[in-house]
Amino acid sequence: MANQTILVTGGAGFIGSNFILYWMNNHPEDKIINLDALTYAGNTKNLASVSDLPNYIFVEGNITDRELVDRLMASCDIVVHFAAESHVDRSILNPDTFIQTNIIGTHVLLESALHNDIKHFHHISTDEVFGSLKLGSDTQFSEHTPYDPRSPYSASKASSDHLVRAYGETYGLNYTITNCSNNYGEYQFPEKLIPLAISHILADKPVPVYGDGLQVRDWLYVQDHCTAIEKVLQSGKSQETYVVGGLTEDIPNIEVVKTILRIMKKPEDMLIHVTDRAGHDVRYSVNWSKIESDLGWKPSVSFEEGMQKTVAWYLANEAWWKPLVSANAAYFKKNYQGRE
Ligand SMILES: NC(=O)c1ccc[n+]([C@@H]2O[C@H](COP(=O)([O-])OP(=O)(O)OC[C@H]3O[C@@H](n4cnc5c(N)ncnc54)[C@H](O)[C@@H]3O)[C@@H](O)[C@H]2O)c1
């Protein structure tokens, strides 16, 4: 894979920017074109360390803009598609942009990929397309789990996965898909559970937890996600899906917040319960044995280690997240019943 040009969509977001930093560090012979609309979730500051490199190009634009996408793809070999509206809570408040970006935008990229003979289209998706598992059960999501999305976000991601597969079956597109679990780590917008908790604690505010907090998620450290995508790009089989996760045991959300409070040496009574999210999925658990056995990937960072690193990063980078919290204060207030 030497000297390839990669179109990364949504590369100014949380996972996309971690991926670009990782890729440019480990594959300096490649060129990256980052197409990002810079929604509230996009932040070019994440990429300050690579922005002047000759093999990195940033293009502000929308993946629904076919003319622009065609122009960029004309010089690309590979597409790595992260761009999405990604927050379940926002999809409940306003599903429209989720349909536009996640479904229509993916369709535009697929059409353009065919038109431009893209060698490999990698689609980043989520384990949320599989729905919700029973609390206390030992069932897990795998590549064979039927789709059962339950929020506008997961339904839009499920649609995009189906479109990608349809373009493979119908038109022979060489694609791969990864369905990964909840990511955490550096540069995550402080609306998601872990950075939300850290930023609230640092601001001496109570940490809102939905309902009883017993919901279970699988947690994947973002750097491990980057190495999983790398493996799939390098040796993933055409038209295959790989499920990616980070844990081997269930950790309820309330325990995640308690872990953060312990690491930050704060009392557990900083945690407050707020009315649960509508249609809140109860449990996600991911069986990532296929990517392990087929491609030799497994997560390298334990949950405790990843949380330590993440807390340390937010402590050292207040200048990155504080302006985002201030700029989005109205949203936080609306979503957490007056608790910003
Ligand atoms: N964060 C997670 O825990 C998680 C878990 C599973 C899957 N995913 C998937 O991974 C991908 C990246 O997630 P993330 O957490 O980095 O998201 P994010 O919200 O942090 O970033 C999304 C990026 O896409 C850009 N974008 C949004 N709409 C766009 C459009 N129409 N055109 C161009 N750019 C646009 C935004 O500006 C932003 O930079 C998404 O596809 C998401 O569904 C995320």
Shape: globular
Rg is 19 Å
Query: Given the structure, what is the number of helices?
Result: 12
Number of domains: 2
Helix-strand topology string: EHEEHEHHEHEEHEEEHEEHEHHHH
CATH domain topology of the largest domain: Rossmann fold
Descriptors for this entry?
340 residues, 41% helix, single chain, two-stranded parallel ribbon, globular, binds nicotinamide-adenine-dinucleotide, Rossmann fold, UDP-galactose 4-epimerase, domain 1, 7-stranded parallel beta sheet
Describe the structure.
There is one protein chain. The chain is α/β, with parallel strands linked by helices. The chain has 2 domains: 5-184 and 219-244, Rossmann fold (3-Layer(aba) Sandwich), CATH 3.40.50.720; 193-216 and 248-283 and 301-331, UDP-galactose 4-epimerase, domain 1. Helices cover 41% and strands 16% of the residues. It has 12 helices and 13 strands. The strands form 4 sheets. It has a 7-stranded parallel β-sheet, with helices on both faces. A two-stranded parallel ribbon has the order 7-10. A two-stranded parallel sheet has the order 8-13. Helix 1 links the parallel strand 1 and strand 2. The chain is globular, with a radius of gyration of 19 Å. It starts with a strand and ends in a 5-residue tail after the last helix. The model has no long low-confidence stretch (mean pLDDT 95). The chain binds nicotinamide-adenine-dinucleotide (NAD).
